[in-house]
Write a structure and sequence with these properties.
Layout (H helix, E strand, L loop, with lengths): L1 E5 L7 H14 L4 E5 L5 H13 L5 H19 L6 H19 L5 H9 L1 H16 L5 E2 L7 E2 L10 H11 L5 E5 L2 E4 L5 E3 L5 H12 L3 E6 L20 E3 H10 L9 H6 L4 E5 L8 E4 L4 E2 L4 E15 L7 H13 L3 E7 L3 E7 L5 H9 L2 E15 L3 H8 L3 E7 L3 E7 L1
Parallel strand pairs: 1-2, 1-8, 2-5, 3-5, 4-6, 8-10, 9-11
Antiparallel strand pairs: 6-7, 9-12, 10-11, 13-15, 13-16, 14-15, 16-18, 17-18
Helix pairs in contact: 1-3, 2-3, 2-5, 3-4, 4-6, 7-8
């Protein structure tokens, strides 16, 4: 029994759904759990609904219409008649969403977000399951919210493993093909929908694989596998044929975008291999993450993060930066939802590179100025290089202003102003 995960890029239109069916036929896997994301860029479209709803704007109706129109276009490309049962199923989900927006009393962004955005996955899986059935690929549609149980931390739910393990192992049929949603679960208190964090569909695949003792997980993407660098920023890239669990976790921690950081931990615990393959070329080998050599081929790996913020703190009276000072800083970084990418400290200073993803830099700086002397640089780029040679580092530093450099045996990090 195996688990496949398909992202939004694989089902962005009717042709994408047909190609997904082709992949299933080529792989000839009979016992599968297929985890699906929302179609195309629909997560962004549902996020727009949340923004318009909480902002009480007149654009709410238009943003809902955009979602309906998009999915109906895909349905038209897959089914000969609009009388097909799947139209009723999709319209029922849209009606449920509309009723939530009418009756909901909460204005808590994270809660509303999870209740709304989850419909992207519910609609996607409904359409794909119906199409597969239509062309003779028998399958069972499964609501992931009944099986993946989390706490009440909306937008980033923590999996309650005991409950989840029991529900999946007892309730999921490992024979045949099951279609289910990535990214979503439900909380263990009120049974409201929760999400596992952006890009959490990979994590969903790992959860099902862990609980079902799957033979393997395959993530199908629009790339040939895991590359040693992002081709959007680096002209020459190398396909990694094999990566060890440890190395993959390191790469994910530093921000490699192909594999979700949470995905690898449950797989490693049961030594379930993870494959990253191209849905455009499904017979190619792709990349395997599992036991064995660290990297094959042995090569440098480059990770780039733009639009970071470098914050440097020093004590106002030139006293040492002690544990209590640093502890306060981390408390505030957590409070203002800053993701810490790099830290460096000396006797009287502390420097941190953070991702200002929630746009909370201004109030954070105001808080820090009450205790420290503060300097900062916005719009910096963080490079992380694994297994790099000194020649490669010098080449990367050329024509850049290096604001901070940190190095250990396997990893070099550079914060630069380009």
């Amino acid at each position: 029994m195996k688990v496949f995960k398909f992202g939004g890029a694989s089902v962005t239109d009717a042709d994408g759904v047909k190609n997904l069916a082709k992949v299933l036929k080529i792989t000839v896997e009979k016992d599968l759990v297929v985890v699906l994301s929302a179609m195309g860029k629909m997560t962004n479209a549902f996020e727009k609904v949340v923004t318009n709803y909480l902002g009480n704007t007149r654009d709410l109706s238009a943003s809902l219409h955009e979602i309906v129109h998009y999915h109906h276009n895909i349905l038209k490309g897959l089914f000969d008649s609009d009388k097909h049962e799947v139209y009723k199923q999709v319209n029922k989900l849209i009606t449920e969403l509309s009723q939530f927006l009418e009756k909901n009393k909460s204005k808590q962004h994270a809660f509303v977000y999870d209740q709304v955005v989850s419909y992207g996955e519910l609609i996607s899986t409904t359409i794909v399951a119906a199409y597969l059935q239509e062309i003779g690929i028998e399958n069972m549609w499964l609501d992931a919210r009944e099986f993946i149980i989390t706490d009440t931390k909306y937008r980033d739910g923590n999996v309650q493993w005991k409950d989840t393990q029991q529900r999946i192992s007892e309730g999921v049929n490992v024979n045949g093909i099951t279609i289910t949603q990535g990214f979503i679960g439900s909380d263990n208190t009120h049974n409201f929908t929760t999400t596992l964090g952006r890009e959490g569909s990979d994590y969903t695949a790992a959860i099902f694989a862990y609980c079902l003792n799957a033979d393997a997980v395959t993530i199908w993407k629009d790339v040939p596998g895991v590359l040693n660098a992002d081709p959007r920023y680096f002209k020459k890239t190398t396909l990694l044929h094999h990566i060890s669990y440890k190395e993959a976790i390191e790469l994910a921690f530093y921000g490699a975008s192909v594999i979700h950081p949470k995905t690898l931990q449950p797989l490693q615990r049961k030594e379930i291999p993870l494959y990253v393959k191209s849905f455009e070329n499904p017979e190619a080998a792709g990349t395997c993450v599992g036991k064995g050599v660290t990297l094959d081929p042995v090569t440098s790996c480059f990770i780039l993060k733009r639009n970071q913020v470098l914050i440097s703190l020093s004590s106002l009276d030139f006293s040492f930066m002690m544990e209590n000072h640093i502890g306060e800083v981390f408390k505030w970084l957590h409070e203002y939802k800053m993701k810490v990418e790099l830290i460096q400290n000396s006797a009287i200073s502390f420097t941190v590179c953070v991702d200002n993803r929630y746009d909370t830099l201004v109030p954070l700086l105001a808080k820090l100025r009450g205790t420290f002397k503060v300097k900062w640089n916005e719009g910096v780029t963080l490079y992380t290089i694994r297994h790099a040679s000194s020649t490669e580092i010098k080449k990367l530093e050329a024509d850049k202003t290096v604001l901070l450099k940190q190095e250990n045996r396997d990893t070099v990090q550079l914060v630069v102003k380009e």
